[in-house]
Write a structure and sequence with these properties.
The chain is an alpha/beta fold. Helices cover about 30% and strands about 15% of the residues. A six-stranded mixed beta sheet has the order 5-4-3-1-2-6. It is globular and about 50 Å long.
Length: about 220
């Protein structure tokens, strides 16, 4: 099948519709990597203000696991790339942590949309030094405060293949790292076709997340509001 500009427009518009965007969005994409919207600078016209939210604090509880969620999490984006409600994702990650006797705390990361850096920032705020980063599209990382950003404990890159049981196990594993127990890495399903199938949607969701960043505010306390 030949990929033309018209085909990319159709795909991009279909994805925007699925994400709940306005029907009058018209897309003209010169490439698959950088779709753009004619007459629009942003996917969402306005950026949510978090100026009045409390700044995230450095935890002191050695049982604490901090979950750092993306800037658009539960606001501009309410479901993962494979349509799992983000409320349920957060509920299951927290449940997994609690099942292992640890304490979850949720923050919203407003200064980066890179999941590895999100997870590292969460780990640095955590009383235990262990953190979890979750992008709004569902990609997740378990991190430790003294590691390099890309040297994480566990990475779950294929969000389209993840389910709620996986998110629960992520919470459990993060808690086990805190306890110093032997951790069996969670098996990651691999599907070579998931990348081309979800490429446009992933790009648009990442753009929607990135445009909500507010580095001046930084990181705020967030309990799934």
């Amino acid at each position: 099948m030949q990929i033309s500009e018209d085909l990319i427009k159709q795909i991009t518009n279909a994805v925007l519709m699925e994400m709940g965007q306005a029907e009058n969005y018209t897309a003209a994409a010169p490439s698959l990597e950088a779709p753009s919207m004619i007459g629009r600078d942003r996917i969402n016209e306005t950026r949510t203000s978090y100026a009045d939210y409390p700044k995230a604090r450095k935890g002191t509880d050695p049982k604490e696991v901090v979950i750092g969620v993306g800037a658009a999490f539960q606001k501009e984006i309410k479901r993962t790339i494979c349509n799992i409600p983000l409320d349920e994702v957060l509920k299951n990650v927290k449940a997994g942590i609690e099942e292992e006797g640890m304490v979850p705390r949720v923050v919203k990361i407003l200064d980066t949309s890179d999941v590895c850096f999100m997870a590292l920032e969460a780990a640095k705020l955590s009383g235990s030094g262990i953190g979890i980063g979750i992008q709004s599209k569902g990609t997740t990382v378990i991190h430790q405060k003294d590691l390099y950003p890309l040297s994480n404990l566990e990475l779950f890159p294929q969000a389209p293949l993840m389910d709620l049981e996986t998110y629960r196990k992520i919470g459990q594993n993060a808690a086990k790292y805190v306890k110093g127990e032997q951790v069996v890495p969670i098996p990651c399903t691999n599907d070579p076709m998931s990348r081309p199938k979800y490429q446009v949607k992933a790009a648009l969701m990442h753009i929607a997340e990135t445009e909500q960043l507010d580095p001046e505010v930084g990181i705020i306390e967030w309990e799934g509001k």
